[in-house]
Every structure is written in C-alpha cells, then in structure tokens.
C-alpha cells in the first residue's frame, strides 16, 4: 500500500526528495541575470527559506502588452516566535522595507513580518541583514512547522512569560536542520564531511505546512482552533498546571471541492508543561508518516485526522509519546480579538495595543504610522509585539516613558480607539492583490473602504461600539481566518464575495454560508437589514454571531 503511494506521490514530494535538503538549483537561479524569476521547482523550495516568488498583478496586462516578463518580485516572511521584537530589530525591518521592499511592512495573522516587492538580486542582502539582527526567515513557509504563535501581551500574569518561553522553545525545536539556508544566504561554506540530516523531518519534510499555537484563556487572540496543534494553558491557583492539546484545526478550502473544508481543532487531552515538546514531536511525526503525500489538497493534518479518526490518533500517540495524556480540563475563552489601549503588566510596565488596519505599516496621508513606530523604536525603550490579529503592542514601557510614546503617536496622527467603531477594531483582511498569486478578489486594499460604508449603518443603528469580528480574504484559503469571523467575506471574483455569518466571538465556532457572489451594493443591502434587526431584537450583551444563530438567519 505505502509502496504504491510512493509511486503516486505528488510532484512536490519528488522536488523535496531530490533537492539535496532544500538546495535545489536556487543558487544558480539567483545568479541568472536574464530573468527576474527562478526555476519553478526552486520557487517551491524557496518557500522553506521564507520567500515566495510573486509578481505585481496590477502590472500584468501592461507588461504583457510591452512583451515583458511579469514583474517578478519576492515576498519575505520573518519568523519571530510569539511576535516579540526589540526596537533595534524593528529599525532593521523598517529600513529594509524602504531599501529593498515596497516601503511598507505587513504584520501577519501569525505574528510575523512580511516584506513585499524584493527583487531577486536583493533577496540575499535582505535575508542576511535580517539574520544579523537575530531574526530569521527559515521555515516561515513550506512543508514544515511555521512560526509558533503565542499571546504576546503579558499583562495578565507571570504565566505569559512561561508560555512565551515554551512557544520559543517549540519554534526553535522544529526548525529544519539543513545547512542549505546558511550556505545560500549567509555565505557559510558547505562542509561535505558533515552530511545534512533531518532527524525529524527526513528528506521529504512534512506533507504540508504545520502550525502550532499557544493560548492563555480567557484570550484566544491566536485563534487556537485554527491550528494543526494548539496548546491551551491551564492555570490553577496562579500556577501553570499544563496544557490542553487541540489537534487538526485549519481554515483553507477550495471552492467546488467538498472534500476540503475549514475545521476546528479537536481537544484530545491534557499534558504537563514538560510534556509539551515530546507530545508535539510525536504528533508532528504522526503527520509526517500518515499525512497524504499524493494529493496536496488532502495533506493537512486535519484531513489525516478525519481520514483515520481521532481515536486512531489517540491510539497511535502512546507508541511515540512516553508521557501521560490526561483528560481535557475545562477552560473558557471570551474573545479572539485584541484588547486595545494601555494596560499595566504585573511588573509595572505598560503595554499599548494599537490597531493597525489589516496589519499594514505604512505612511499615508494624515496617518504616518510607519514613521511613528520608527520614532518609537528610536527611543530604544521597551519592545514591539506583533499580535495574531495583525496589530501591534508597544510593550514593556516604564511608567516615566509612557508620555513619550503618547506624544509620538499624537504627532504622527496615529488613529486612536475613540475614532473607530467596534467593527473596524475587530476587522482583519489578508494581503490578496496585488501580490498574492491566489487572490480572486481584493481584500486588504478593499476592506477599509467597505468598512467606511458599514460604519454609517452601524451609526444609524447605534451599534458603533459593539465589538463584532469581521474578516475578509481574497480567496478561500482563509489567511485572515475568515471562517472564524462573525461576519466573513471570501472573494469569489473581482468585486464579488461570498458572505458568511455566525462564528462565535471567541473563535470556537465556524461561520456558515449566508449569500454567494455579492457585489458591494448587495453586501450593504444585506447588512443594512441585518444590523437594523440586530439593534432591535438582539439581547443586551448578545454577540452578533450568536444573534444570527439564535434567529436562525444561518
Ligand atoms: Fe496564508 C497561502 C498570506 C496566514 C492559509 N498565504 C498564502 C500565500 C503565501 C499565497 C501563496 O501560496 O502564493 C499568501 C501570501 C500573500 C502575500 O502576497 O503576502 C498568504 N497567510 C498569508 C498572511 C500574510 C495573511 C495576512 O494578511 O496576514 C498570513 C501569514 C502568516 C504567517 O506569518 O505565517 C497567512 N494562511 C494564514 C492562515 C492563518 C493562520 O495560520 O492562523 C491560514 C489559515 C490557517 C490554515 O493554515 O489552515 C492560511 N495560506 C493559507 C493557505 C491554505 C492552506 C490550506 O490548508 O488549504 C494557503 C494556500 C496553500 O497553502 O496552498 C496560503
Ligand atoms: Fe492570498 Fe487567499 Fe491567502 Fe488572501 S486568503 S492572502 S487571497 S491565499
């Protein structure tokens, strides 16, 4: 049976197998001056190094008319476990975005940085500089474990520090061991006498991407149920007892293919803190050995679990994990959004969560966010923390320096909470056009203007302060986790969206399809009625997602 599967395995499996531990012919392609691109197979391997080959989709037609190849450029993703960066690291990213990127930074839904628009010849100096600043791009993409998420705001308790430490440990542990990355980007000499080894991943790595997150109830700002593997901290009498283990979450689907679907993670038990790494390794190895290597659309861990069954997983686990999986412990999540404004941490330092529209750090007319954060980083105090909702926390600020931060934000007109509706503060959009090759419709560039119009409806109905999560993606891959939005939009075609309603406000229930292929006018007409009814018949503290379920609207 497995013999046959090897013969039928997907093209990507062959590419990984023959890549000499992720080297392929990337080095040769980078040096080819005749094209801005690299070879197709190498572009797949490049993902493991943290970069996607893209082209500017806005310029597609024009370039074709001019008989030029597409304007090839590269996106780089930078890995920071738990999203915590120093001011010095921020300044490096800020400068690189201007020097080699498109002058902006994207804070992603997994607490990473993305830079867009890097030309082939600039990839190496960019990656090198990132590494010199003690950050890395390795394994931010590709069939490996990705950036490990963790609640970045330590205001609640000491537990945050402990959990963050574990997230870092897990993130480091699951990085690939190949030396290809260091040779290609950091000029390390290849040591032929010390052959590469991937004790965990082996030569073909994982069947598909793998995502791990940690959350500390009651906050679910990492969307724990959207991950292949989630750890929910269980705190008793102020002490970290351990973690509930949740497996098989994922958001992606393909239109017209019912065998693909978003899936919430399933809790399978509880482990002590020192069992996190061993249980994670066992689970990753199960996915390595049983994940589908024939059909990439069925290769995520969620399908492995649904294919073999949760009971099978629980039986397989003890064969690879010596520790004890106890019964899942009760926990309560309240929200998957961020809490904005200043809060004081247990060490007396201050943390300011700032809304960053769709995670894009840029200067725009009347709103100089990029400059403001650079000025804050130049003060050299505290740290800068990326949240899983594409926002930024200006963290660890001593009491005496708080006013300095406020002055900079004011000077550069950075929007403050009071100017925004609860809906906008709960909004997220994926990148989509012009860089994402998979986008069917606009997302990041469109959602703000749609929200301007929805804001009017909210004001008409006195709902401007209600916290409602709204998320948009330009295709059904779900990068902004739109399946977990109380109001979700997924792009179908330019200017057309499917509308989904009814996810819970805390990220533990998926939404459902409400209408298909809506234009903006149709979206606003639907929302005008829904919001009017919600204002009239919604219960005082009832979340919009719960309301549409109670009223059987979906
Ligand atoms: Fe994603 C592919 C952007 C978080 C599910 N994602 C992509 C690519 C690389 C497009 C591509 O393959 O060519 C997008 C790059 C666009 C660009 O121009 O930058 C892209 N994904 C993003 C980011 C930047 C969205 C954002 O606006 O913040 C997020 C980067 C996270 C990070 O720092 O690592 C991002 N992607 C997610 C998430 C959310 C999460 O992980 O919590 C998901 C849903 C969860 C999941 O994995 O199930 C997600 N991205 C996908 C998928 C669908 C995977 C699937 O199982 O079907 C793809 C397509 C694929 O893998 O084939 C994809
Ligand atoms: Fe691109 Fe689709 Fe992800 Fe949006 S959801 S970034 S359109 S892959």
UniProtKB/TrEMBL annotation:
InterPro entries, per database record: CysI, NiRdtase/SiRdtase_haem-b_fer, Nit/Sulf_reduc_fer-like_dom_sf, NO2/SO3_Rdtase_4Fe4S_dom, NO2/SO3_Rdtase_4Fe4S_prot, NO2/SO3_Rdtase_4Fe4S_sf, NO2/SO3_Rdtase_FeS/sirohaem_BS
Q: What is its EC number?
A: 1.8.1.2
The GO biological-process annotations, alphabetized, read as: cysteine biosynthetic process; sulfate assimilation
Q: Name one GO cellular component term.
A: sulfite reductase complex (NADPH)
Q: What pathway or pathways are given for this protein in its record?
A: Sulfur metabolism; hydrogen sulfide biosynthesis; hydrogen sulfide from sulfite (NADPH route): step 1/1
Q: Where is the Nitrite/Sulfite reductase ferredoxin-like domain?
A: 72-132, 347-412
Reaction catalyzed: hydrogen sulfide + 3 NADP(+) + 3 H2O = sulfite + 3 NADPH + 4 H(+)
| Quaternary structure note | Alpha(8)-beta(8). The alpha component is a flavoprotein, the beta component is a hemoprotein.
Protein name, per record: assimilatory sulfite reductase (NADPH)
Task: Give the organism, scientific name.
Answer: Allomuricauda ruestringensis (strain DSM 13258 / CIP 107369 / LMG 19739 / B1) (Muricauda ruestringensis)
According to the entry, what is the taxonomic lineage of the organism?
Answer: Bacteria, Pseudomonadati, Bacteroidota, Flavobacteriia, Flavobacteriales
